[in-house]
Amino acid sequence: MLEKDAKNYHAWTIRQWALKFFGLWDNELEYVDKLLNLDVRNNSAWNQRFFVIESTTGYTNEVLKAEIIYTQEKLKRGSNNTSAWNYLRGLAKVSSYNELPEIEEFCVEKLESTWGITCGQLYVTLIDIYTKSGDHEKLATAIEYCEKLQSGLDDIHKKYWIYRKTTLEKLIA
Amino acid sequence: RESYIVTVTGDRMELGTSRLTLTNEENNPTVSSIEQIRVERLVHRLMIMSDTDHHLTALLQRKAHAKYLMGGLNYLPEYFSGLDASKSWICFWIIHSLELLDEMPSSNHINRMVTYLSKLQSPTGGFGGGPQQLAHLAPTYAATCALMICGTQQAYDVIDRESMYKFLLSRKCPDGSFTMHENGEVDIRGVYCALAVASLLNILTPELTEGVPEWLARCQTYEGGFGGDVGLEAHGGYTYCGLAAIVILDSVHLIDKDLLVYWLQDRQMRLEGGFQGRPNKLVDGCYSFWQGASFPLVDEYIINPEQYNPDDDSDAISFGENEGGWCFNQLALQEYLYICCEDDHGGLRDKPGVRRDFYHTCYTLSGLSIAQHNPHYHPESKTIYGRAENLLVPNDPIYNITPRNVAKAKAYFSAKPKIQ
């Protein structure tokens, strides 16, 4: 079923049930990888990646580091990929940005490239990192990035960035 | 077209150049991006073909929609034999759409619907999708809500509260989840359907709700939305069910609130203005409700909770004039619905190129109502795209029926004895 429609919700539901019931985890990450090579924007495959790892090895430090590299490689194929950025931020949610400084390093580095002009998700991620940092200078930069998103890079979501900015301003006040 | 590109705040929305450009594939076309750009081309073309003052002149085709819906009502018994399992849903989709349009049918029609729905009730409690069918939580929700909309005493009295309670309880699993029907699958929709019905009928008990908030919280994924079961992908329909259920159980504190809000608003599409169900998937008119209705809920419990406390004097966050008080672009959503979803012969659709149906008619109108009516504390009580007469009847985001009918039903059933 997934060959015809790689995002079919019912198919993924059955697949996850079968994996849990029969314990056939061995080749699943490979399968996910295959799907992501076919379509790096397949959000169901990214979710499956999270599900498999959580259900098998778990997100150990070693696994987190490897997954960061994996996700960054996939982002190089297309920076404008919400699924990959959600997964990258998801890794920090399991752990923290403090434990995984390479995420911030990667983002700051990419600011200097064309991503700094075209990639809204880059700023979304930096805002997430800086919001959680508690550092006043970083919070101020996060506010600047909210303004950048609301005024052009992500203007359909303007009201949300106004809300985020207001919340950040209260933190600094 | 100069006037479309150069817009001024307060006139046709400040579109900005980003809305007019197609998604950048970055030299890596995949199925997802190819599909997305195909839809963007269609939508973009329809948008630039519309009048520059469309945001002032757009007129909801009320009469056409009412005619389409009444047609469905009249042919209900014969028409949908293929969808045998969904008769209660069709009743709900049609009658809810009519109540939003303020085009309720005659009491004759209403009584016929009540009689029809009573035939779907199972002797052991709950409702099935068709006569003699096994009770199932989804048609139970649909039949119950349709009856609440019918709103007569006869409608209320169709429901056997005692056997309904036994049925709902029989669906409950030890881990806090609910199965849709006997030997059926676990699904977050089941929880929502059970709790919505229980809270309307005044049969919400600790026995029914024990352990449920904790299971619901487990359905939130690393993305911020909710999946159909623990581990499944975050998805608009399931997120709505999860959030509404959690609100009924007053358990919003158990979830990652900020991440949910981020995920939710990120689902509004840059060019189309409508909502998608999951990242890298296509816009669909029905998500106008599934995603849209979560916004009043997050406003009350996450973004502006002080505004719902009469003793609190704080200011709400301001989004600017004519922008509306929910945390999404209310005008862009409405624009998508008028330009891309209205069928000339009545009814509404998923997206351009797809056929109209009662399901999409129901959920586009449900979302439209949410987008038009602002929070109670907002300086502008309405944010209406197009003509003022487009205003729909307000819609309750928890039950997806009008607040008036929710209040009437709750008043009636709260007077009934508690269930032991």
Word description of this protein:
The complex is a heterodimer of chains A (173) and B (420). Chain A has 173 residues and is mainly α. Chain A has 10 helices and no strands. In chain A, helix 2 packs antiparallel against helix 3. Chain B contains 20 helices and no strands. Chain B is globular and about 60 Å long. The chains are: A mainly alpha (173), B mainly alpha (420).
Which labels suit this protein?
heterodimer; A: about 170 residues; mainly alpha; 10 helices; about 75% helix; about 0% strand; elongated; B: mainly alpha; about 50% helix; globular
Secondary-structure element pattern of chain B, one letter each:
HHHHHHHHHHHHHHHHHHHH
- What fraction, in percent, of the residue positions of chain A are helical? over 70%
Structural class of chain B: mainly alpha
Oligomer: heterodimer
- Unreliably modeled segments of chain B: 1-17
Number of strands of chain A: 0
Our measurement of the CA-to-CA distance between the termini of chain B, rounded to an integer number of angstroms, reads 67 Å
3D shape of chain B: globular
Structure in a nutshell:
Chain A is mainly α and 173 residues long.
Chart the SSEs and their pairings.
The complex is a heterodimer of chains A (173) and B (420).
Chain A lengths: L8 H14 L5 H11 L4 H13 L5 H16 L5 H13 L6 H11 L3 H4 L1 H14 L2 H18 L4 H15 L1
Helix pairs in contact in A: 1-3, 2-3, 3-5, 4-5, 6-8, 8-9, 9-10
Chain B lengths: L1 H4 L25 H19 L4 H4 L4 H13 L1 H4 L7 H14 L6 H12 L18 H14 L2 H6 L2 H10 L17 H14 L4 H4 L2 H7 L17 H13 L8 H10 L20 H4 L3 H10 L26 H12 L16 H15 L30 H12 L6
Helix pairs in contact in B: 4-6, 6-8, 6-19, 7-8, 8-11, 11-14, 15-17, 18-19
